[in-house]
Amino acid sequence: MPPEIQKDVEYRLPFTVNNLTININILLPPQFPQEKPVISVFPPIRHHIMDKQGAYVTSPLINSFTMHSDLGKIVQSILDEFWKNPPVLAPNATTFPYLYSKPTGIPTYAQNFPFLSAYLPQETNRSVASVPLGESLSSGYSTDRPAAPSFGMITDLPLPVPTTEALSQGNQNGFGYKMPDVPDVFPELSELSISDLTDMNEQEDILLEQFVNLPQLKHIINDKDDLVKSIEELAKKNLLLEPSLETKRQTILDKYEQLIHLKTTFEKKVQRQHELSESCSASALQARLKVAAHEAEEESDTIAEDFLEGKTEIDDFLSSFMEKRTICHCRRAKEEKLQQAIAMRGQFHAPL
Predict the structure, then answer these.
(1) Is residue 189 over pLDDT 50?
(2) Average pLDDT of 183-204?
(3) Domain regions of the chain by residue span
(4) Which of 39, 112, 196, 237 has the greatest number of beta carbons closer than 10 A?
(5) Helix 194-202 and helix 204-212, axial crossing angle in degrees, nearest 10
(6) Are 158 and 76 in contact (CB under 8 A)?
(7) 123 near 16, Cβ under 8 Å?
(8) Which CATH number is correct for 9-89, 3.10.110.10, 3.60.10.10, 1.10.3210.10, 3.40.50.150?
């Protein structure tokens, strides 16, 4: 009997790659998520993220697991790695102690963990592709273009499973091609006598002719021809798209150069706007008014000294002196008004 899957303690995910079905078990410790989970596979496999026995996953994502880690993303990355680099069955992989007895050093885990929802037990020999999409629920973790085929989700635990549609699409592209089944009995050979079979075994030409006429081999050859034709058609389509892609690439380069030019122009204008804004600020205007009022006052004082020294007639003195004094007082009045406005702006924190 298959081992019991405990709610919120142990989860199992059947996974098929290259006609090899493996079960990925996720065991949650009592202090999860403070303690890292234990992820194992059955049957044992050879892979660079597995331990020497091929039973436990030793990925850096598992070793560096923290309470802030996303278990669903970690399992997703493990599945992606299996898709990129398919594992091979470990030699003499007939037993898996973890499934039937507790591993050394791993305590028995209690139930009632609130961190993950229930996971329905599944048959050990059930293929991943046979899981209907109706049993899957949406998950918060998804990718637009995963390294592996498109995935559905089983229960609330974000463990991805390849969908049947994705696998069938992969078969059409030559990925994961399934060899035709070889029958245990060949009817055309059962009608031959022992001497005929002996001659066939001794003469390679006759044996090769019999082998070439096998329907399974013809099926493989037809599939190969269809795949070659589809590849040739795809290559032709790619070649037809090359001119338009090159044109679009050049257009993007031109647009990029235009963007760089516009960016430079914009930065210069922003700098110029900043300089003008600084020169027209309230504090700058007040300083300029103060300087201008002081200059008008000095000019009026100079005119008065020239009049006292007899260098200027009284009519010229009155007209020029009164003009400069008027300008001086106007500028001082404007300075005082601007000073009041600046004080009010500072009081109410409102832009002028």
Answers:
(1) yes
(2) 78
(3) 9-89, 278-348
(4) 39
(5) 100
(6) yes
(7) no
(8) 3.10.110.10
Q: Where are the alpha helices (DSSP H) in the chain?
A: 60-63, 71-84, 97-100, 164-172, 187-190, 194-202, 204-212, 215-279, 282-308, 314-348
Residue in the structure block whose two tokens are 């436990």: 56
Kindly report the backbone phi and psi dihedral angles of residue 27, in degrees, each rounded to the nearest multiple of 5, phi listed first: -110, 125
Single-letter code of the amino acid located at 267? E
H-helix or E-strand containing 35?
none
From 79, 39, 71, select the one nearest 141 (Cα to Cα). Answer: 71
Please indicate, yes or no, whether the overall pTM of this predicted structure exceeds 0.70.
no
The gap from C-alpha 192 to its chain's centroid, in whole angstroms, comes to 62
Sort strands 10-17 and 20-27 into parallel, antiparallel or unpaired: antiparallel
Structure tokens at 214: 């096998």
Cα separation of 178 and 266, whole Å?
60
Whether the predicted pLDDT of 172 surpasses 60: no
Cα dist from 173 to 130, 178, 204, 228, whole Å:
20, 12, 35, 10
3-state SS, residue 41? strand
